[in-house]
User: Fold this.
Amino acid sequence: MKKTVVIIDDEIHIVEVMVALFESEEYELIGFHNADEAVSYVNTHEVAAVFCDYRMPGITGLELSKCFKPGVRFFIISGDLELDLSSENTVFATIQKPFEVEDLLSVLEGLKHAS
Amino acid sequence: MRNVCEMGGKVAAIKIRDGTELLVELGRSLQNQDEKGLESLTSQLKILSRFIGSDYCCIAELLPGSKTVRSLVFLKDGEVSENQEVLLKDTPCETLTPEEVCQIPSGVQQQFSKDSRLVQMGIEGYLGAVILVEKGVPIGVLSALYKHPIKAPDEKAQILKVFSKLIEEEFSLLVKHGLPCSLAEQAKCPLNTKHPSEDILWRNFLESTLDNMPAIFYAKSKDGRFIHVNQEFLKPFRFEREEVIGKTNHEIFPVEVADLFRKTDLETMKQKTATVTEEVAIDHDGDKRFYRSYKFPYIDENGEAYATGGISIDITSAKRAEEALEVERSKSMQNAKLASLGELAAGVAHEINNPLTIILGSAQLMKRYIQSGDNKAILKNSEVIIETVRRISKIVMGLRVYARDSSKEKFEIRTAHHLVQLSTDLLGEYFRHSGIEIKLRGNLNLELEVRPVNISQVIVNLLTNSLHALERFEERWIQIECVEDPGDSQFVQLIVSDSGNGIPEKVVEKMFDPFFTTKPSYQGTGLGLSVSSSILREHGGELKYQLLNGHTGFILRLPKRQRKENSQEVA
Assistant:
């Protein structure tokens, strides 16, 4: 069975590109550009990981991370230069935009071994 | 006081035919130790006057310039009368020579018809001798006047000559000590120092004054030749006085400097009034020196200018300080821009990294679609890339505001919409994330002749202030309205207001001052509003704060077109 990975970004193009890039036999990609919809989906489904933008209208990725059920692997993907969320326990890791496809894939690989 | 024997020796050396009586009387007078100075001279003159039988008798000093005499003792009918000051011109005294006594036994009125005093006093005969000091310099005049033709004039002339020798020392002492002048008179005329060589003293006095003056002095003749310069003039150019006197400006200064000097000299002589100009010269070390020059004409008795004088004060250090201040000001404007760039950096980085993510992702997808031959997907992704690259260049264009010194930017005609767009493009990301609504109102198609980057910098400053201020408000909007100035159709008002409720009065008082800020130090330099307001002034406009329906508002008032000198930059 495919594992579900959730993408949250207010930029539609980013969501589209990421879904197209990482969609595979192994992963099913589901994208959101609205934070509320994403929260209700994640909290009612089994998800392997959440990749979320930091700056979004009215809310930050960090604020959003606290809305999810416990145990969700939550990654921040951000274009901000000086973002340091290492002390936040709701955030698994931060990935800098723009990112290489391989880097993100290796993050997903790592998850497989961890679970 | 005086050595009588010596005086006697002198007297004996002069042969006279019948001066015994006079000598006896004078000898007695000279021995009278109680009488001093003027008193002694007066009694001696009385003796002389009685002896030669003159109606008037007078001892007078020659005043500086040798044009006027002033009597020390004036006797009428042998008694002291009021002292007089007389111009020598056209009087018998003018004809005196140090060598001999002047005798005009009769007809003196006819001979000196211009001398009205002679008529008034009814003078017929004249005797006069020059009083000299030892070096032969004339210092005074001794004269005797007769209402009738003079009998035995030769004899009387001889006596006069002897007498003039006798009183030389007494007289010179008197003149030297300035006794004839009352203290008040001396104060009025400090140059009248009583000394034998008045002309030399006068010149020395002037030269010392000029040479010790902490300013440059020069006088030039009508044809532009230097007549006099002081020490201060010679210093910066390391001239010797001989190298300058008699030369023209063009012979000692570079042509462009000399041209300017000559021009102001001619103007001063033409206008016959003093002028103040700023002049530049290159000194011996090749450095530029700035002067404030006060030039004035020398006017002769016919009212014509015959020379120009000038006093120049070195204002180089003041000028340098002014220039340094201007450089500082321009630097701090640049710093202010860099500081606000710092504020915006995070937002801008985010704004650019997002599209970069899209481009990178789309390009990688295209590689895949090329392998699978999915042309439709390739086309779609290439369009996404093109659109996204354009988005980035728009942001980079917005950054021009901060990237360079835009004070030399050209004036260009732009619509208000274009200017607002430049600013909002840069801050778009901020607005979206802060949930601030941007409302555009009025006629944004109005055209303005501005330095576009400068004006959008002002708008960015105002918008950034609003962004910070609105953080504590629930209702968040910024409105930009463009209208024609209701008071003057040649002006346009760009009104930037926000949902804030105004600025505290204490802040309003100071907010246009440089370095005033309400933000913590890491957020702002406090130069925003002062820089903005100086940009508006450079445009011939102004920046005003105003409460609009209870909301914070700033009005940028700008002329639709620039004055000619600014407009020429457009060409």
